[in-house]
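Kindly inspect this one:
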Amino acid sequence: MTRTAAFLGLGAMGGPMAAHVVRHRQAQGGRALVWNRTRSKAEAHAAEFGGEAVDLAGVAGADVIFTCLPTSAEVDGVMDALIGDLREGATWVDCTSGHPEAARRQSARLSERGVAFLDAPVSGGPWGAEAGKLTVMVGGDAGVLERVRGDLAFAGRVVHMGEVGAGFAVKAVNNTLMAVNMWAAGEGLAALARTGVDLRAALDVINASSGRSYPTESLIGQRVLTREFPVTFTLGLLAKDTGIAADVVREAGASAPVLTQTAALVRAAATTVGAGADYSAMLRLVEQMNGRELR
Protein backbone atom coordinates (compact mmCIF):
# COMPACT_ATOMS: atom_id res chain seq x y z
CA MET A 1 0.00 0.00 0.00
CA THR A 2 1.44 3.37 -0.99
CA ARG A 3 1.79 6.06 1.63
CA THR A 4 1.87 9.83 1.53
CA ALA A 5 4.39 11.87 3.48
CA ALA A 6 4.14 15.62 3.97
CA PHE A 7 6.93 17.95 5.12
CA LEU A 8 6.06 21.35 6.59
CA GLY A 9 8.82 23.93 6.93
CA LEU A 10 11.58 24.29 4.35
CA GLY A 11 14.21 26.36 6.13
CA ALA A 12 17.95 25.78 6.40
CA MET A 13 17.34 22.40 8.03
CA GLY A 14 13.87 21.52 6.78
CA GLY A 15 14.68 22.08 3.10
CA PRO A 16 17.37 19.39 2.78
CA MET A 17 15.56 17.10 5.22
CA ALA A 18 12.44 17.31 3.08
CA ALA A 19 14.48 16.50 -0.02
CA HIS A 20 15.49 13.17 1.52
CA VAL A 21 11.88 12.44 2.50
CA VAL A 22 10.71 13.22 -1.04
CA ARG A 23 13.28 10.94 -2.64
CA HIS A 24 12.55 8.10 -0.22
CA ARG A 25 8.79 8.31 -0.54
CA GLN A 26 8.92 8.46 -4.34
CA ALA A 27 11.28 5.47 -4.40
CA GLN A 28 8.63 3.58 -2.43
CA GLY A 29 5.94 4.53 -4.92
CA GLY A 30 4.12 6.99 -2.69
CA ARG A 31 3.45 10.73 -2.73
CA ALA A 32 5.57 13.41 -1.09
CA LEU A 33 4.04 16.79 -0.28
CA VAL A 34 5.88 19.95 0.78
CA TRP A 35 4.54 23.11 2.40
CA ASN A 36 6.11 26.36 3.49
CA ARG A 37 4.59 29.55 4.80
CA THR A 38 5.99 31.23 1.69
CA ARG A 39 4.36 29.31 -1.15
CA SER A 40 7.07 30.16 -3.68
CA LYS A 41 9.64 28.40 -1.53
CA ALA A 42 7.60 25.18 -1.58
CA GLU A 43 7.16 25.47 -5.35
CA ALA A 44 10.91 25.93 -5.85
CA HIS A 45 11.63 22.93 -3.63
CA ALA A 46 9.13 20.79 -5.55
CA ALA A 47 10.64 21.85 -8.87
CA GLU A 48 14.13 20.90 -7.69
CA PHE A 49 13.42 17.66 -5.85
CA GLY A 50 10.18 16.37 -7.36
CA GLY A 51 7.68 16.64 -4.53
CA GLU A 52 4.27 18.31 -4.74
CA ALA A 53 3.88 21.83 -3.37
CA VAL A 54 0.53 22.12 -1.59
CA ASP A 55 -1.48 24.53 0.49
CA LEU A 56 -1.68 23.73 4.19
CA ALA A 57 -5.06 22.04 3.83
CA GLY A 58 -3.55 19.74 1.24
CA VAL A 59 -1.38 17.90 3.78
CA ALA A 60 -4.25 16.85 6.05
CA GLY A 61 -4.70 13.44 4.45
CA ALA A 62 -1.02 12.43 4.66
CA ASP A 63 0.00 9.25 6.48
CA VAL A 64 3.11 10.87 7.97
CA ILE A 65 3.35 14.61 8.63
CA PHE A 66 6.74 16.13 9.42
CA THR A 67 7.06 19.60 10.90
CA CYS A 68 10.35 21.50 11.13
CA LEU A 69 9.41 25.00 12.31
CA PRO A 70 11.11 27.64 14.49
CA THR A 71 9.21 26.97 17.73
CA SER A 72 6.37 24.94 19.20
CA ALA A 73 4.11 27.99 18.78
CA GLU A 74 4.32 27.69 14.98
CA VAL A 75 3.55 23.97 15.26
CA ASP A 76 0.48 24.87 17.30
CA GLY A 77 -0.58 27.20 14.49
CA VAL A 78 -0.45 24.59 11.73
CA MET A 79 -2.01 22.01 14.04
CA ASP A 80 -4.91 24.38 14.67
CA ALA A 81 -5.47 24.58 10.92
CA LEU A 82 -5.24 20.83 10.29
CA ILE A 83 -6.57 19.10 13.39
CA GLY A 84 -10.13 18.66 12.17
CA ASP A 85 -9.13 17.02 8.90
CA LEU A 86 -6.23 14.74 9.85
CA ARG A 87 -6.49 11.12 8.82
CA GLU A 88 -7.06 8.66 11.65
CA GLY A 89 -4.03 6.42 11.99
CA ALA A 90 -1.59 9.07 10.76
CA THR A 91 1.63 9.98 12.57
CA TRP A 92 2.84 13.52 13.26
CA VAL A 93 6.65 13.74 13.58
CA ASP A 94 7.79 17.09 14.94
CA CYS A 95 11.44 17.83 14.13
CA THR A 96 11.17 21.32 15.59
CA SER A 97 13.47 22.06 18.53
CA GLY A 98 10.36 22.41 20.64
CA HIS A 99 9.31 22.45 24.27
CA PRO A 100 8.65 19.17 26.14
CA GLU A 101 5.47 20.58 27.68
CA ALA A 102 4.18 21.54 24.23
CA ALA A 103 4.96 18.04 22.95
CA ARG A 104 2.89 16.45 25.71
CA ARG A 105 0.00 18.81 25.08
CA GLN A 106 0.12 18.37 21.30
CA SER A 107 0.37 14.59 21.63
CA ALA A 108 -2.73 14.48 23.82
CA ARG A 109 -4.62 16.69 21.39
CA LEU A 110 -3.71 14.55 18.39
CA SER A 111 -4.50 11.35 20.25
CA GLU A 112 -8.13 12.46 20.48
CA ARG A 113 -8.16 12.40 16.66
CA GLY A 114 -6.51 8.98 16.46
CA VAL A 115 -3.18 10.49 15.35
CA ALA A 116 0.15 9.49 16.93
CA PHE A 117 2.82 12.03 17.81
CA LEU A 118 6.61 11.84 18.06
CA ASP A 119 8.92 14.67 19.05
CA ALA A 120 11.99 14.12 16.90
CA PRO A 121 14.44 17.03 16.97
CA VAL A 122 17.68 16.64 15.06
CA SER A 123 21.36 17.43 15.47
CA GLY A 124 24.03 17.76 12.82
CA GLY A 125 23.47 21.13 11.22
CA PRO A 126 22.67 21.98 7.59
CA TRP A 127 25.59 19.85 6.39
CA GLY A 128 24.25 16.78 8.17
CA ALA A 129 20.80 17.50 6.77
CA GLU A 130 22.11 17.68 3.22
CA ALA A 131 24.08 14.46 3.66
CA GLY A 132 21.18 12.63 5.30
CA LYS A 133 23.35 11.97 8.37
CA LEU A 134 21.43 13.74 11.12
CA THR A 135 21.10 12.33 14.61
CA VAL A 136 17.41 12.15 15.52
CA MET A 137 16.43 12.01 19.21
CA VAL A 138 12.89 10.70 19.51
CA GLY A 139 10.31 10.95 22.26
CA GLY A 140 7.11 8.95 22.14
CA ASP A 141 5.85 5.41 21.74
CA ALA A 142 8.60 3.04 20.56
CA GLY A 143 6.13 1.12 18.41
CA VAL A 144 5.10 4.28 16.59
CA LEU A 145 8.76 5.07 15.97
CA GLU A 146 9.29 1.65 14.38
CA ARG A 147 6.28 2.25 12.17
CA VAL A 148 7.79 5.40 10.67
CA ARG A 149 11.51 4.72 11.08
CA GLY A 150 11.92 4.17 7.34
CA ASP A 151 10.45 7.60 6.66
CA LEU A 152 13.26 9.28 8.62
CA ALA A 153 15.31 9.34 5.43
CA PHE A 154 17.37 12.31 6.63
CA ALA A 155 18.80 10.36 9.57
CA GLY A 156 22.17 8.76 10.03
CA ARG A 157 21.25 7.73 13.55
CA VAL A 158 17.88 7.45 15.31
CA VAL A 159 17.79 7.11 19.10
CA HIS A 160 14.62 6.54 21.14
CA MET A 161 14.90 8.75 24.22
CA GLY A 162 11.73 7.83 26.13
CA GLU A 163 8.23 9.22 26.50
CA VAL A 164 6.76 12.16 24.59
CA GLY A 165 8.83 15.28 25.29
CA ALA A 166 12.06 13.40 25.97
CA GLY A 167 13.48 14.17 22.54
CA PHE A 168 12.90 17.90 22.98
CA ALA A 169 14.42 17.80 26.46
CA VAL A 170 17.60 16.10 25.23
CA LYS A 171 17.93 18.51 22.29
CA ALA A 172 17.62 21.55 24.57
CA VAL A 173 20.19 20.24 27.04
CA ASN A 174 22.54 19.29 24.21
CA ASN A 175 22.41 22.78 22.71
CA THR A 176 22.90 24.32 26.13
CA LEU A 177 26.00 22.20 26.73
CA MET A 178 27.36 23.56 23.46
CA ALA A 179 26.61 27.08 24.67
CA VAL A 180 28.37 26.37 27.98
CA ASN A 181 31.48 25.30 26.10
CA MET A 182 31.28 28.28 23.75
CA TRP A 183 30.90 30.81 26.54
CA ALA A 184 33.61 29.28 28.73
CA ALA A 185 36.06 29.14 25.82
CA GLY A 186 35.29 32.77 24.99
CA GLU A 187 35.99 33.86 28.54
CA GLY A 188 39.27 31.97 28.59
CA LEU A 189 40.39 33.35 25.25
CA ALA A 190 39.42 36.89 26.25
CA ALA A 191 41.60 36.61 29.35
CA LEU A 192 44.47 35.28 27.24
CA ALA A 193 44.02 38.09 24.71
CA ARG A 194 44.34 40.66 27.49
CA THR A 195 47.71 39.17 28.43
CA GLY A 196 48.94 39.34 24.83
CA VAL A 197 48.68 35.66 23.91
CA ASP A 198 48.22 34.81 20.23
CA LEU A 199 44.72 33.33 20.14
CA ARG A 200 45.25 31.09 17.13
CA ALA A 201 48.25 29.56 18.86
CA ALA A 202 46.17 29.18 22.03
CA LEU A 203 43.40 27.43 20.08
CA ASP A 204 45.94 25.07 18.51
CA VAL A 205 47.06 24.02 21.98
CA ILE A 206 43.53 23.82 23.42
CA ASN A 207 42.36 21.67 20.51
CA ALA A 208 45.21 19.25 21.11
CA SER A 209 44.49 19.17 24.84
CA SER A 210 41.76 18.43 27.36
CA GLY A 211 40.06 21.82 26.98
CA ARG A 212 38.89 21.16 23.44
CA SER A 213 35.21 21.17 22.49
CA TYR A 214 33.05 21.51 19.41
CA PRO A 215 33.10 25.33 19.65
CA THR A 216 36.91 25.48 19.94
CA GLU A 217 37.43 22.98 17.14
CA SER A 218 34.76 24.03 14.64
CA LEU A 219 33.39 27.47 15.48
CA ILE A 220 35.65 29.96 17.21
CA GLY A 221 38.60 29.81 14.83
CA GLN A 222 36.43 29.70 11.73
CA ARG A 223 33.78 32.27 12.72
CA VAL A 224 34.92 34.44 15.61
CA LEU A 225 38.64 34.99 15.04
CA THR A 226 37.93 35.59 11.34
CA ARG A 227 35.16 38.09 12.29
CA GLU A 228 32.92 36.43 9.68
CA PHE A 229 30.07 35.11 11.88
CA PRO A 230 28.19 33.41 8.99
CA VAL A 231 24.57 32.88 9.97
CA THR A 232 23.72 29.16 10.02
CA PHE A 233 21.79 29.02 13.31
CA THR A 234 20.61 32.20 14.96
CA LEU A 235 21.41 33.43 18.41
CA GLY A 236 17.68 33.92 19.02
CA LEU A 237 17.00 30.23 18.40
CA LEU A 238 19.87 29.26 20.71
CA ALA A 239 18.39 31.53 23.38
CA LYS A 240 15.08 29.71 22.90
CA ASP A 241 16.76 26.31 23.28
CA THR A 242 18.75 27.27 26.37
CA GLY A 243 15.56 28.70 27.86
CA ILE A 244 13.85 25.35 27.28
CA ALA A 245 16.74 23.61 29.02
CA ALA A 246 16.32 25.95 31.99
CA ASP A 247 12.62 25.01 32.08
CA VAL A 248 13.59 21.31 32.02
CA VAL A 249 15.86 21.92 35.01
CA ARG A 250 13.11 23.70 36.94
CA GLU A 251 10.44 21.12 36.11
CA ALA A 252 12.78 18.33 37.21
CA GLY A 253 13.58 20.09 40.47
CA ALA A 254 17.24 19.68 39.54
CA SER A 255 20.25 21.75 40.53
CA ALA A 256 22.07 23.02 37.45
CA PRO A 257 23.48 26.50 38.12
CA VAL A 258 25.88 26.43 35.15
CA LEU A 259 23.13 25.53 32.68
CA THR A 260 20.68 28.11 34.00
CA GLN A 261 23.31 30.86 34.17
CA THR A 262 24.39 30.10 30.63
CA ALA A 263 20.76 30.35 29.49
CA ALA A 264 20.64 33.84 31.01
CA LEU A 265 23.91 34.84 29.35
CA VAL A 266 22.75 33.60 25.93
CA ARG A 267 19.50 35.53 26.34
CA ALA A 268 21.51 38.65 27.21
CA ALA A 269 23.71 38.11 24.17
CA ALA A 270 20.68 37.77 21.90
CA THR A 271 19.34 41.06 23.27
CA THR A 272 22.67 42.87 23.06
CA VAL A 273 24.15 41.47 19.85
CA GLY A 274 20.90 40.73 18.02
CA ALA A 275 18.67 37.67 17.84
CA GLY A 276 19.29 37.33 14.11
CA ALA A 277 23.07 37.05 14.46
CA ASP A 278 24.86 33.72 14.19
CA TYR A 279 25.02 31.84 17.47
CA SER A 280 28.81 32.18 17.52
CA ALA A 281 28.24 35.94 17.87
CA MET A 282 27.32 35.35 21.50
CA LEU A 283 31.04 35.86 22.10
CA ARG A 284 30.67 39.48 21.06
CA LEU A 285 29.11 40.00 24.49
CA VAL A 286 32.19 38.40 26.08
CA GLU A 287 34.28 40.81 24.02
CA GLN A 288 32.26 43.79 25.27
CA MET A 289 32.64 42.62 28.87
CA ASN A 290 36.41 42.35 28.43
CA GLY A 291 37.03 45.33 26.15
CA ARG A 292 38.92 43.15 23.69
CA GLU A 293 38.01 41.56 20.37
CA LEU A 294 38.88 37.90 19.86
CA ARG A 295 41.16 37.93 16.83
